[in-house]
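Repro:
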Amino acid sequence: MDIMDTIKQQIADNAVILYMKGSPNAPQCGFSMRSAQAIMECGKRFAYVDILTNPEIRANLPKYAEWPTFPQLWVNGELIGGCDIITEMHEAGELKTTIDSAVPDEA
């Protein structure tokens, strides 16, 4: 599968996905740490991709997204943004609303 198809499929298959350095429990940069923390505080499960262990995704996602930096948060197939946007949305209460609308409550 082409790397662009892989990226498209990851975004399509996950209502909320964070492309980050490291993992939510072991982030490898401050921006990824703040982003993952804000998303975890929303209380819903989300997918993540460690771009440090996926160099092809790291190289190609900025082209696909037309967004040059990491982390990148995608919700319902739409790029939300990076750390600054995630943090601002979290502080304003908008991040939880956005994620809640994308991820139904588990029964």
